[in-house]
Amino acid sequence: MVSFLIRRVFYAIIMLILVSFISFLIINLPAGDFMDQKIAELEARGDKSAVARVEDYRVRYGLDQPMLTQYWLWISNFVRGDFGLSFQFERPVKELIGQRLTLSILLSLTTLTITWLIAIPLGVYSAVNQYSLGDQIITTIAFIGIGLPGFLLALLVLYVAIVILDQDVVGLFSREFQDAPWSLAKVWDLLKHLWVPALIGAVTGTAGTIRIMRGNLLDTLGQPFIEAARARGLKSRRVVWKHAVRMAITPLVIILGTEAFPGILAGNILVEVVLGLPTIGPLYINALTTQDMFMAGTVLVLIVFLLLVGNLITDLVLAWIDPRVRLE
Amino acid sequence: MSDAAVIPVQETKDDAVKISQSYWSLVWWKFKRNRLAVVAAFILAAYYITCLIFPEFFAPYSKGLESDYIEARPTYPQFVDADGNFSLRPFVYGLDEEIDVATRSRQFVVNESVKYPLYFFVEGEPYKLFGFIPAKTHFFGTDPADPDAKVFLLGTDRLGRDQFSRILFGGRISLFIGLFSVAVFLFVGVTLGAASGYYGGATDIVVMRITELLSAFPQEPLFLALGAAVPVSWPSTRVFFMVTILLALIQWGGLARQVRGLVLSGREEQYVLAARSFGASDRRIIFNHLIPATMSHVIVIATLKIPGMILLETALSFLGLGLVPPTVSWGTLLQNANTVRSISAAPWYLFVTPFILFAILAYNLLGDGLRDAMDPYSK
To answer: B15, B51, B245, B353: which has the highest count of C-beta atoms within 10 A?
Structure first.
């Protein structure tokens, strides 16, 4: 167990180093850095002090140095928790991400809750009543849902809300609460907005989860221990929920670790962009389009970090809930 | 001995029909029975004929033709006019420009007193079929003798270009990207996977480590970052090929792993051992024996991959990180609808979404049908 953990952590660290280097390369690929643009822009405005300030950034972050040195500077600061500066906003990346992190986490948790609340009962029903009319309907809907791209759905929702219902669904807050301090009214306002992106995110997630749940439960229901439980006269509901579902639910733990956990940072970037949410996804896209390299690089590396940590936790949790899993 | 000689004769007689069926004809039989998948195949055929091969013919206008009708609303074909007269020949109403006093914006309103009948196989803008056959017949359109007559089935954009025509032309690029990137994806994935499984050793280790590294990246954010790294100054064809190749390059890992697994087990099969003992070269064994054995599996993966490729391109271009106008793709067309203002002022920009959705759905249904059909021995 301990040697497994050490090996996996070691492996994850190597991966992180490689991934962070590749990310840095990709983010740096576009010709000319953000500074050139910014300086040209500032010079056009004749803002001398700002030009000097930007030149100062260039030196401080080693942008005039060779690539490897730049990477080293960035990554060594990164490890210490200094993610660099967002050149576009001229504020630390950490601060900008921190501002939006809460809402991102809230959104992904809500999405996950809705997904599971819908998907698990439907998947169980579908498996227990295999080939019934209800099962046929559920599997068909789930099949269509899997192919539905969230951002197109978000666009259609926008259309219905704006053109037909004349409702405001953009963002997570109404205008009057945008910069207001937290209060009960603001939380209520947030909830009124949050369910739209959460539901859109849940549509695709639900379809996949139903399929997994149904497939696994069907496998489990065919096992001898289920038959044994039934033979002993246990109530059908008890057999299904207490014995079968508990076994069949383990793959969902894998989803939790490999998709939901890294999804906190950029679960559904496109939906977030379409709906203009103040979450991390749009921040990332904005950084990519403006070549705000530290911002984009940080988000990318953090997602990979969460993914690796998620994988690790998944392995451990699986070994814990399912004694048949051996950690080699 | 004499008994044994009789029985096989009878067996062949009974099983004659079954034995003569090849694997692929069994697959075809099973596929035909899946109604949804067959319908999906027809829908996709229609897509490819109208959008990929003959958009010049099916679209009433060319993709770049500008008109005075700026952001005009769609005019739908009618059979019954305002007075209740029925005509078998469909027609569209004319459009009048009007200034909305409240919002001080110009917009078009339907003028029910003007009717433009629609004709099939009309002469219109000249074009080159397949790029070299000059032609000017369009599938449908308005009377060529009447210069005022226009038909904008799905409205127009900011430059007065016909949305319907542009969606067909956009489909050409988007559908082609799906096919082309999957071809690259298959080539890279199958070759590297087969090499990895067949040779083992260093090749295997290198290929597998690369796939692991790829899988450590989240696909969507990685693809967006790579798309953003494609220089804006590049000519549009080069951007197009770059985006296509990137799509394939971030995804081949999973395929390579699966092919590797299949090849690893196939390598020990008797027919492969036989081929080797006859002195067949590695190349022959890989390309004539091992890869064909993975084909049924690979075809299913490829079919199910195409919609994902189309969607990623659409998403990338929608965000302005991939293809950019004047290239017309479903993604660049969707860019028109990327603000709340344009959705409320000109909701017909969203007409491209059902086109994308149906293509995606059809591909998923087809892939699902193929997956069942490729295993014809199961019940």
So the answer is: B51
A–B interface: beta-carbon pairs under 8 A:
107
Provide the residue ranges of all domains of chain A, joining segments of one domain with +.
2-78, 94-321
Closest CB to B340 among A162, A296, A303:
A162
Longest dimension (CA), chain B: 102
Q: Cβ B225–A27 below 8 Å, yes or no?
A: yes
Mean pLDDT of B312-336: 87
Query: Which of A139-143, A144-148, A270-274, B281-285 has the weakest average pLDDT?
Result: A144-148
The 3-state DSSP class for residue A325 equals coil
Average pLDDT over residues B130-155: 81
The dihedral of CA B269, B273, B278, B282: what is its sign? Answer: positive
Whether A158 and A275 have beta carbons less than 8 Å apart is answered as yes
Q: Are strands A85-86 and A91-92 parallel, antiparallel or unpaired?
A: antiparallel
pLDDT tens for residues A267-289? 788 888 888 888 888 888 888 88
Q: Which residues of A touch B350 (CB under 8 A)?
A: 155-156, 159
What is the structure's pLDDT at B10? 47
Task: Check CB contact of A266 with chain B, cutoff 8 Å.
Answer: yes
pLDDT for res B44: 92
By the CB < 8 Å criterion, does A302 face chain B? no
CA distance B45 to chain A (A): 19
Interval B40-57 mean pLDDT: 89
Nearest by CB to A152, which of B320, B353, B364? B353
Chain-centroid distance, C-alpha B116: 34
More confident residue, A300 or A185: A300
Q: Which residues of B touch A30 (CB under 8 A)?
A: 228-229, 231
Which one is the CATH code of A94-321: 1.10.1740.10, 1.10.3720.10, 1.20.1630.10, 3.40.50.300?
Answer: 1.10.3720.10
Q: Is B71 helix (H, G, I), strand (E, B) or coil?
A: coil
CA torsion A234→A237→A243→A249, rounded to 10°? Answer: 170
Q: What is the DSSP letter of A177?
A: G
Task: Answer yes or no: do A162 and B319 touch at CB < 8 A.
Answer: no
pTM here is 0.83
Residues A266, B220: C-beta atoms closer than 8 Å: yes
> In the predicted model, is pLDDT for residue B183 greater than 90?
yes
Q: Kindly state whether A312 is in contact with chain B, defined as any CB-CB distance less than 8 angstroms.
A: no
